[in-house]
Specification:
Length: 625
């Protein structure tokens, strides 16, 4: 009977998930400053689009970005919160576990059902089911099974950087948290609040150590403050998430004073944001470094060797304790002595197989992205930039080798952007950037929703209707402004425009081109200025010399173009424009300006898709028209 009630509750909740989420969003903003309200929605619901760009950058540089996206941590906290509440209601263990499973099933769609929360939900659900079945399976083997299930359901997920980081974090916690906790307890004690502090600190240390090499490899940068920052926010994170979840749940009851709960969580969120600012803003807090594949494997070998050494020392310490106990108990019953020593030896020997399997799995999930691939030719040992022939619109594909592809705009609707991406060897995107919400740039992105996995959709200004479609497709979003940075492997995109202050107010009736995202793409010494429709006359920029300029607004008249060419001195100009378009693009004045500055120019209406193969200091131009 309880199971039937749970199933009915889940079905009812899922059928009204949109309404439930809307009430939760409203409740999480009541009685809190705008920054704290946006953080609460990010922590609980995974909605980060309302978080201002400075706060997002602080979290990234401080190594706290994981707090702004729904993850396995949210599911774990949800279960920890629910279990004592359900126990207080007099429910037996099995009934409590059924309700926790139901809560997980409801929370996944409520939080947006993105890839990370789906993985977290599968992990949480499998753990609960294992307990329900009476099998005390270790968390390690649960992780292995969950990883296998996800790989079967979505084989390409192994190439996803987020999946790799999530897997590495959980694996690190399973292998390193226990010895780290023991080491911390040896110094601070293990009773009462000290045990909780040791648990939290050990998990933070383990996850940080396990993910640091991957972060350095994929993003060529690492936060020097991530460990310190995560330890500082540790006491505030769990209470802030619990209070946020409580406010979101209680909001489903009409008249509940969510502001009273938010009054407790707001100072916690403000403290976390302040720690992010303290730890993220110093220039030395975020270091750029290059860690190749060899360095990645070397880092994990060192980490594995350290884990083996720590396990060996811990085992020796336990065996020494057993021998002392045996000597002390020689005058007592032999049965208890044999039981004690047998248990210790079993635990010591049991460490070997999980550790070996863990190391094999770590190597497997690192190798899969490089051997999985698609059948289409991969980019060379560098970067491939494709200015796609998409008609009268913009669609620029950036493919760094061994890292997720990034799409800047998708062209107009109906021009087959998904087919063009697949022919370029892309079956998933790490990120899609919508420079501004006009059909010739955003239309193709809307068509990709549901047709191709997309890690994140990033923007500066988007209409609510566009955002609603993105959220309906269960894709994470993020807001960009001047100072934001996006990395994919060795590729880095620095956002130069628009400034945050221009994004603060309403934008009704304003020319969307003036708020279009302008980004500088860098790969080693190569640089390309992506101007979208932001003409130089209205967007004062001085990025310095660049190799390639994507001419703004399909080559329309631009009084500031000459001065921009003087400042940037590009070796090549590219114009994304449709054949026989009714606007007369590119205009004679723009072509004359480019010619006067002796800048070679290619255009998609005549040259078709233009591909740049960047390797080292060389750039090879391929026309596919």
């Amino acid at each position: 009977m309880p199971l039937l009630l749970v199933v009915a509750a889940v079905v009812l909740a899922l059928s009204h998930s949109g309404e439930i989420r809307a009430r939760a969003e409203t409740a999480l903003g009541e009685g809190m400053p705008s920054r704290e309200a946006a953080l609460a929605r990010g922590f609980v619901l995974g909605e980060d689009e309302q978080i201002d760009s400075q706060t997002t950058e602080d979290f990234r540089r401080a190594g706290l970005s994981h707090l702004l996206a729904v993850s396995g941590q949210n599911v774990a906290l949800l279960a920890l919160l629910a279990m004592p509440v359900l126990a207080a209601l007099g429910m037996p263990l099995r009934t409590r576990l059924v309700w926790v499973l139901a809560l997980i099933a409801v929370y996944v769609p409520l939080a947006g059902a993105g890839p990370s929360i789906q993985r977290a939900g599968i992990m949480g659900g499998l753990s609960v089911l294992a307990t329900l079945s009476g099998r005390r399976a270790s968390r390690f083997y649960t992780l292995v099974f969950a990883a296998a299930v996800l790989l079967v359901l979505e084989p390409g997920i192994a190439a996803d950087v987020g999946w790799q980081l999530s897997f590495a974090a959980v694996l690190g916690i399973l292998l390193l948290a226990a010895p780290l906790r023991a080491a911390i307890e040896a110094r601070i004690g293990g009773g009462g609040w000290r045990r909780g502090l040791a648990d939290g600190a050990a998990m933070t240390l383990a996850a940080t150590l396990a993910t640091a090499p991957l972060i350095a490899f994929h993003f060529e940068a690492i936060s020097t403050m991530t460990l310190f920052a995560n330890l500082l926010v540790l006491p505030a994170v769990a209470p802030a998430m619990w209070l946020g979840m409580l406010a979101a749940a209680a909001a489903q009851v009409p008249g509940f004073p969510a502001a009273a709960v938010n009054a407790l969580s707001a100072p916690l969120l403000a403290y976390i944001a302040q720690v992010a600012a303290w730890c993220g803003r110093p220039s030395w807090a975020y270091l750029h470094l290059r860690l190749g594949l060899g360095g990645l494997f070397a880092s994990y070998l060192v980490l594995a060797a350290t884990a083996v050494l720590a396990a060996s020392l811990s085992r020796q310490h336990r065996l020494a304790a057993v021998r002392r106990a045996e000597r002390t108990a020689r005058r007592g019953p032999t049965l208890s002595v044999r039981f004690l020593s047998g248990t210790a030896r079993q635990k010591a020997n049991g460490l070997r197989l999980p550790l070996a399997v863990a190391l094999a799995l770590a190597a497997l999930f690192l190798l899969l992205p490089s051997i999985g691939g698609s059948s289409a030719p991969l980019p060379p040992a560098g970067l491939r930039v494709s200015v796609l022939d998409i008609g009268q619109g913009d669609a620029i594909l950036l493919q760094p080798r061994n890292a997720p592809a990034v799409l800047v705009d998708g062209g107009p609707p109906g021009d087959g952007i998904a087919a063009k991406l697949r022919s370029a060897g892309v079956d998933r995107l790490g990120a899609a950037i919508v420079t501004h919400d006009q059909a010739d740039h955003a239309g193709g992105i809307s068509e990709l929703l549901g047709a191709m996995p997309i890690g994140r959709v990033l923007y500066a200004v988007l209409r609510r209707s566009t955002l609603a479609r993105i959220h309906a497709a269960r894709i994470a979003t993020g807001r960009l402004a001047r100072g934001s940075e996006l990395r994919s492997g060795r590729l880095r995109l620095d956002v130069l425009w628009p400034p945050p202050e221009l994004l603060a107010g309403p934008h009704r009736g304003e020319d969307p081109n003036t708020l279009a995202i302008v980004a500088l793409a860098r790969w080693r010494s190569f640089s390309m200025l992506l101007t979208a429709d932001a003409e130089a006359e209205s967007t004062p920029l001085d990025p310095g010399p660049v190799d390639v300029l994507k001419v703004a607004h399909h080559g329309s008249d631009d009084a500031g173009l000459s001065a921009l060419l003087d400042r940037t001195r590009p070796r090549l100009a590219l114009i994304s424009v449709g054949a026989d378009n009714p606007f007369g693009h590119p205009t004679p004045a723009t072509l004359a300006t480019l010619a006067a500055h002796r800048v070679p120019t290619l255009r998609t209406d005549r040259d078709g898709t233009i591909v740049l193969e960047v390797t080292g200091a060389s750039i090879e131009v391929v026309r596919e028209g």
